[in-house]
Design goal:
By secondary structure, the chain is an alpha+beta fold. It has three domains: 1-40; 42-195, Aminotransferase class 4, branched-chain amino acid transferase, N-terminal domain (D-amino Acid Aminotransferase, Chain A, domain 1, 2-Layer Sandwich), CATH 3.30.470; 206-364, D-amino Acid Aminotransferase, subunit A, domain 2 (D-amino Acid Aminotransferase, Chain A, domain 2), CATH 3.20.10. It has eight helices and 17 strands. The strands form two sheets. Strands 8, 9, 10, 11, 12, 13, 14, 15 and 16 form a nine-stranded mixed β-sheet that branches. Strands 1, 2, 3, 4, 5, 6, 7 and 17 form an eight-stranded antiparallel β-sheet that branches. A hairpin with a 7-residue loop joins strand 9 (248-252) and strand 10. The two termini are 18 Å apart. Bound molecules: pyridoxal-5'-phosphate. Pyridoxal-5'-phosphate binds at residues 102, 226, 262, 265-267, 286, 288-291, 324-326.
Length: 379
């Protein structure tokens, strides 16, 4: 693998020395794709693959499509990755009319590229758009955009086992508006960045802090959709927890301050014997695609999975706790601190969370048979 990549890189330098990737047009990118391997100037971008965290790395291309009042989204296209121009009166800047998504492209051992349930992200964006009074792309356009963005940035997809290409679809109100109402124009865009582990300590178990002052969402609010407006308000809770050495925050319901909801960007599960419990989704929790997939995998392993209100006290009695999300995958929780009391959980080998994690990742990278039909091969 290394030899081949170096060879191709050498070849690139010789034949395409003046054509940096960033100078290629979107059409050239398509040509590049279609004419492999002759035109394949470089299999891998110049990245330190062993030290990827969850940071932004600039890639070559992004996808963009616009839609003006009451029309369908226009045909989108790839362009060089770069800044976008906005009216100062854009709906997203003034009133936070925006949604985001997150999904990943994985490189299998055999070099094939896979997406994981991208249509689920598309559907979630449509539901969110309805909630936020925005027009949204069709499921097909969404999936096609994600696919195009992944393939155009193929050299940024990490080698097998080193990470994945995080794809970030955004739907934002870009039309100018002063009165409080939906923007007259929307932009759908997708950009990408190679990523490794979400938390800075890699796969180390998480130390969560239960927050009882700030809440992430309330009934009737927009906590159930991936609205950009849900995230800035929790930065304060996150930085407070991180400042005290915790990995992240676990939020409680805002009415009783008694039931656990979720972590800042991932869902939570408790294991007790053969029963796995996770908070039910009643509009205050983001319904994760990883959450949904783990529920199916766990049930197929014979665990009893319950979606129900989970009181914070139950954390004291759990055998294991773990979190799920596209960014974190499945992460083991090592401790939870609530009102000054710290509970520790089993970590290490033989955990239920590790079994579920291995199965999920195995399916995502094409190593384990995908009987669920979740994986999309985009070669
Ligand atoms: C995106 C997100 C999740 C995880 O959803 P996945 O579809 O599994 O990535 C969980 N909670 C919040 C608040 C999120 O924004």
């Amino acid at each position: 693998m290394i030899h081949r990549s170096l060879y191709l890189r050498g070849l690139a330098k010789a034949s395409l020395s003046k054509v940096g990737a960033r100078c290629l047009t979107a059409q050239a990118a398509t040509a590049l794709r279609d004419s492999e391997p002759m035109f394949r100037y470089e299999e891998y971008a110049d990245v330190d693959w062993n030290n990827l965290g969850f940071g932004l790395t600039r890639t070559d291309y992004m996808y963009m499509a616009k839609c003006s009042e009451n029309n369908a989204f226009q045909h989108g296209r790839l362009s060089d990755y770069g800044n976008v121009e906005l009216s100062p009166a854009a709906g997203v800047l003034n009133y936070g009319q925006g949604l985001f998504e997150g999904t990943k492209a994985y490189r299998g051992d055999d070099g094939r590229i896979f997406l994981f349930r991208p249509e689920q992200n598309a559907i979630r964006m449509q539901i969110g758009a309805e909630r936020m009074c925005m027009q949204s792309p069709s499921v097909q356009q969404f999936v096609d955009a994600v696919k195009q963005t992944a393939l155009a940035n193929k050299r940024w997809i990490p080698p097998p086992g080193k990470g994945s290409l995080y794809l970030r679809p955004l739907l934002i109100g870009t039309g100018p508006i002063l009165g409080l109402s939906p923007a007259p124009e929307y932009t759908f865009l997708v950009y990408a960045s190679p990523v490794g582990n979400y938390f800075k300590d890699g796969m180390a178990p998480l130390n969560l802090y239960v927050e009882d002052e700030f809440h992430r969402a309330t009934r009737g609010g927009a906590g159930g959709v991936k609205s950009i407006s849900n995230y800035a308000p929790v930065l304060k809770a996150i930085s407070k927890a991180k400042g005290q050495g915790f990995s992240d925050v676990l939020y409680l319901d805002s009415v009783h301050k008694k039931y656990i909801e979720e972590v800042s960007s991932c869902n939570i599960f408790l294991v007790k014997g053969n029963v796995i419990s996770t908070p039910e989704t009643v509009g205050t929790i983001l319904e994760g695609i990883t959450r949904k997939s783990i529920i199916d995998i766990a049930r197929d392993y014979g665990y009893k999975v319950e979606e129900r209100p989970v009181a914070v006290d139950e954390l004291l009695r759990a055998d294991e706790v773990f979190t799920t999300g596209t960014a974190v995958s499945v992460a083991t929780v090592g401790s939870i601190t609530y009102k000054g009391q710290r509970v520790e959980y089993k970590i290490g080998d033989g955990l239920v969370s590790q079994k579920l994690y291995k199965t999920l990742v195995g399916i995502q990278v094409g190593k384990i048979e995908d009987k669920y039909n979740w994986v999309v091969d985009i070669n």
